[in-house]
């Protein structure tokens, strides 16, 4: 069978023939893969930079996908940290890490949306007691996950949403869609801090996809602009597109009721993640989310891998 294969952490995967995988345990089945999303997490798996990387090569990338098993059922599956990923004609899944999809689910839509949508859905459901009526700041709101976070916070009853990012065109689209006040993170740091501080002074929850320097600056800006220091502020670390480490100002933690939590593999258990998926699938099937998706044949994985210019679309590889 054919698969995308990574033989070096420095180069894009190549489409090549490999041995057909075999199930090893009673809970495992081989599925025909129908769709696998090219998420940032998959890129970090394939370049060895993700915190779960074991440096083992060669590897087939892909952390989740939609496939059909020998029982004919359509499943969304999440793979364990493995070198046998979903970007292949077939892969082995553990049925305990999968959910059966309704027969009419669109494999490409589910493969595109589940990973980025899960990031905020699970953070708000599993890492905090999110109260409808809360004010939310999304840091990094123009990526696939950030744009979905705006929609999901709204769905869960946020009273107000501030959407902050750099890309002016995508921020304008978010503003036009309504429901969120946009703040540009582009420009002089002092100006950004003033803008963000003014817009986000009274937020209750931050969904943070950036980390690194932008997060340190945003945290200082929000905390110093608060009118009521006793108002709880929960900062949920979800992504790290701007840096793996951030210099958190110590005063932010002393001068406000700031709590920092993370949401992702490990801080949320597999069981908790799976428990949320049916409701998320239902929302996707109902067309609740606006996401731009591009299906690309798996044989073109090398070319699409190298093209990182378009963060608007979520690419889905189709064997
Ligand atoms: N923990 C979880 O459960 C979970 C689940 C899914 C995804 N994630 C993580 O969430 C993050 C975002 O994922 P995604 O799917 O939205 O990615 P994406 O679609 O590639 O979007 C990333 C966005 O980040 C912004 N960005 C990139 N570099 C930046 C920088 N140096 N400073 C500020 N902004 C920068 C860009 O927007 P602008 O150019 O407009 O700023 C871009 O649109 C990734 O780190 C991903 O691994 C976490």
UniProtKB/TrEMBL annotation:
Q: Which InterPro entries match?
A: GroES-like_sf, NAD(P)-bd_dom_sf, Sacchrp_dh_NADP-bd, Zn-ADH-like_protein
What domain of life?
A: Bacteria
* SUPFAM superfamilies with a match to the protein in the record: GroES-like, NAD(P)-binding Rossmann-fold domains
Report the residue ranges that make up the Saccharopine dehydrogenase NADP binding domain in this protein.
136-227
Q: Which GO terms describe its molecular function?
A: oxidoreductase activity
Pfam families (UniProt xref): Sacchrp_dh_NADP
The name this protein carries in UniProt is Quinone oxidoreductase
